[in-house]
Inverse folding.
């Protein structure tokens, strides 16, 4: 088990300037902000980082910058997935020297069979020099990595875990009950982190932790310690900011929250857009009473 990835990871946003270039000053402040909040590892180029609008050159520059500026020397997972398996194998070679592990979204758009999904991950894991985490997010990919497929993949020596954002707790229970002993089940949904940990998950990859790192870490730590009463109290306090973060799409919401906190700007790249005035006012009110 990759114990360095237990606890709270944060799916870092990528700050942009008004001209859409990468805001490295804002990124450095963000790294310091989440590190001081106590997160256990960083996820670079996850969906929250808007990688679909970034070139491979930009992604590599951001990755190297995060590693250089992470004064806490936090482990780094790099998100890289795709629906062209053979091309993906070549891309892994570009980034593997800089990362501790890869987070790989299941193939999207072509909607492969479960056999195709399994073979896709097996080939990636066979060829990768770094451990691989499956990312199941059916709402974005158009297909689900079913429990039986995940359970089979949990036996692969270079596939160490699953970030699950399916929202299907019954499926996650089946995985938890039948996976290999050293395979890590991790919540990919902030609001489901506590119930996921109650059934055997070992942590959370969080979006809202970009802004509210300390509160998110406390929630996860309570849950991992078996103190679900206090974990639930922390979760209740995060319901509103989580709702605000996703009300008009991610990461637009959490980026605006970060802007109000003085960490970085709220610029996103098209086709994403910044928030409506109404939602900005709601976030302003929340931040003002934090």
């Amino acid at each position: 088990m990759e114990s360095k990835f237990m606890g709270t990871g944060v799916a870092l946003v990528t700050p942009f300037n008004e001209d859409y270039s990468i805001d490295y000053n804002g990124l450095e402040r963000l790294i310091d902000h989440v590190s001081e909040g106590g997160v256990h590892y960083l996820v670079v180029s996850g969906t929250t980082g808007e990688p679909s609008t970034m070139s491979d050159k930009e992604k590599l520059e951001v990755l190297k910058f995060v590693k250089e500026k992470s004064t806490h020397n936090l482990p780094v997972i790099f998100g890289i997935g795709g629906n062209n398996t053979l091309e993906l194998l070549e891309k892994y070679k570009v980034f593997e020297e800089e990362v501790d592990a890869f987070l790989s979204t299941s193939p999207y758009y072509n909607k492969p069979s479960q056999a195709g999904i399994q073979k896709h991950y097996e080939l990636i894991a066979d060829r990768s020099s770094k451990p691989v985490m499956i990312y199941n997010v059916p709402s974005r990919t158009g297909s689900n990595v079913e429990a039986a497929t995940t359970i089979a993949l949990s036996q692969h020596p270079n596939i160490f875990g699953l970030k699950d954002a399916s929202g299907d707790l019954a499926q996650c229970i089946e995985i938890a009950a039948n996976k290999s002993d050293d395979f890590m089940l991790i919540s990919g949904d902030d609001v489901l982190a506590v119930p996921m940990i109650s059934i055997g998950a070992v942590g959370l990859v969080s979006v809202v932790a970009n802004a509210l790192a300390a509160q998110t870490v406390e929630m996860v730590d309570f849950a991992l310690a078996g103190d679900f009463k206090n974990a639930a109290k922390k979760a209740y306090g995060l319901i509103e900011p989580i709702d605000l973060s996703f009300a008009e799409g991610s990461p637009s919401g959490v980026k605006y929250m970060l802007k109000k906190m003085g960490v970085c700007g709220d610029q996103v790249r098209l086709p994403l857009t910044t928030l409506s005035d109404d939602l900005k006012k709601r976030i302003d009110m929340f931040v003002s009473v934090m």
Observations:
- The beta strands are 7-11, 41-44, 76-79, 101-105, 132-136, 159-164, 184-187, 203-206.
- The radius of gyration is 18 Å.
- The chain has a mean pLDDT of 96.
